[in-house]
């Protein structure tokens, strides 16, 4: 049996493929070992995932778990997640990899190309059809994450608190969220998962995406992503760039426009990788 997980900072998509090749899908909160320890992750797995998945598990089949997660960029961080999964599924065969490899496998399969994640956070790599060959560092939501929901949200909140947002947008935001300046600063500087908080405003931004202020902000977001990341791959004009994530999906028209200005050819744009990732692992298990 295969259990495949794609985990970002906001949510984790799980897909179980049983011995009869039936597919079952589940969702939990997102995990990031930079912000959560094994105990916190295991608590979510045991309270949300295990009750949902248990009826579909077979005692006679080995459960092979392929977990791809944001923040799983080193052996130490991968071990945090692996310990939590092992605590929940003690007899499983467990592989924990970075979510960037999930994006590359889902978007490129066995072909070469540039793969990009553009969701709550952002990242990119050049993938040779088998492994990640090069990666321009993402640096996280404070120092980087251009192209992400957190980056757009951060710049919007900066402008909002500095009273640089058009009055109509500011009034609508205040009415929608009813957040004080103190509450916003507390969420960013004191609470867990600040990138998730900042990215949560993507829904509001998307609802008002035709406002000139947001048109300019989203364009700037992608411009920065290409300048600081994609255009640094030496072959960025020779291979296609494929993208996964809600930001890439919902702003695909602007993404394609900026890519065209940079001479980059866009391949696939998908909202979530779980379906293509499942097909990848299913093909490897046959």
What does this structure look like?
This protein is an alpha/beta fold and 286 residues long. The protein has three domains: 2-102 and 274-285, ATPase, nucleotide binding domain (Nucleotidyltransferase, domain 5, 2-Layer Sandwich), CATH 3.30.420.40; 108-141 and 219-270, ATPase, nucleotide binding domain (Nucleotidyltransferase, domain 5, 2-Layer Sandwich), CATH 3.30.420.40; 153-212, Transcription Termination Factor Rho, Rna-binding Domain, Chain A, Domain 1, CATH 1.10.720.160. The chain has 13 helices and ten strands. The strands form two sheets. A five-stranded mixed β-sheet has the order 3-2-1-4-5, sandwiched between helices. A five-stranded mixed β-sheet has the order 8-7-6-9-10, with helices on both faces. Helix 1 crosses helix 2, helix 3 (99-108) packs across helix 13 and helix 10 packs across helix 12 (252-262). The longest helix has 17 residues, at 212-228. It is globular and about 60 Å long. The termini are close together.
